[in-house]
User: Fold this.
Amino acid sequence: MSKVNFKFPENFLWGGAVAANQCEGAYLEDGKGLSLVDLLPAASGGRWEALFNPEKTLATTYDYYPSHESIDFYHRYKEDIKLLAEMGFKCFRLSISWPRIFPEGDETSPNEKGLEFYDAVFAECHKYGIEPVVTINHFDTPVGLMKKYNGWLSRKTIDFYLNFCDVIFKRYKDQVKYWMTFNEINMILHIPMFGGGMDVTKSKNPERDKYQAIHHQLVASAYATKLAHEINPDNMVGCMLAAGSTYAYSCNPNDVWKAMEADREGYFFVDVQARGYYPSYSARLFKEKNIQLEMEAEDKAILQKHTVDYVAFSYYSSRLISADPDVNRGTEGNVFSTLKNPYLKASEWGWQIDPLGLRITMNAIYDRYQKPLFIVENGLGAVDQVEADGSINDDYRIDYLRDHIREMGEAMEDGVELLGYTPWGCIDLVSAGTGEMKKRYGFIYVDRDNEGHGTLKRSRKKSFYWYKKVIETNGIELD
Ligand code: P53
Assistant:
């Protein structure tokens, strides 16, 4: 039996994570409006191209939309939460679909049916003593806001978002304590349609427009934090970063500097959300990109005053970068461009597996902010094989998670404060990046394929029993 040399705290939040747009389905049911994700085809239908051409995407009818039915969590949440409870989940990270509550995004009053759905979901969680951890905006900006306002480029979107926050903070005051304002807030720099519900293809200065939208999100996040604390002083509000430290390709200082710049690109957001002000390096960044942000008089004070309570992040992999364009060639076009690290193995989708990188990332973030961390995504997307007897032996997934949990324990031993751990896609769901079903992360298998065939039946993988044991022993038994 192998142990981490550290005991997890008694109240450690073991759990798992999903997002509304990737699991709920029921895309137009009970008054829900369209989310931008509902416009996206699967990888084979041109998802990547669709993400970078919002105007064309809006005008195109695709053959198949994976989000429309997804894994039908909307109708099967009771069965699903029961299975999570069977694993002993202490918490469950999920998101509230914005267009389920405000179908177009800019209405003044909410869709009651949408609110009732989450009443029921949270009640089901509490029935089993599972603490909901809620992402307010997980890639699912209403299409109405995209069309009418170009999403977060418009300052008006702050008000629509805050109206949404006000409604859900009040409604779920006694059900939800842990909130996150935006999923992977730095994603907007890489996929502006996902992160910002915006189209920058016609921008004169796309960088300016992205940072203007980012400013709006940061201000919205600070106001939301203020509101959450006013409505319930016990609320814990976090930011959420797509993390993963960047390594220098060589000890050439040019490479080291490049790696520092790459990490700052993401830290930029948390610098504002956790420290309360734009970082010192932002002035030069804006000057070089010819960016003059439009701000309102009170913005700086709001950012300063309403910082987050914890720093949440996703971690799948570390990244590797070089200053030499020849070395970097071929890595452009990926969400986070990374070189191949010769010391690491990679998943079937090329995501490099680096458990120690998690410890490095945790220490780097904690050193910088000294706020509690929350690992809200981590995991291995892999193809699973269902055996003739129905079993699914996902030892590769167990290995991945075990190695990461071990390093998580090491980081805590290093002094990092960690609230919890919610591996991504605890129940198989649609991949955000590719729209595939076969890129699975779950402990629970869902019978559905890339084309939408399958019974949607749920079954327990080998990792299900393994993770149950991990939680039961509070991280002591990892084998
Ligand atoms: P998938 C990359 C691309 C898209 C979303 O990703 C991503 C990332 C990785 O940082 O972010 C998160 O499904 C995201 C989830 C997503 C998960 O990574 O492409 O918050 O919505 O499903 C995994 O394998």
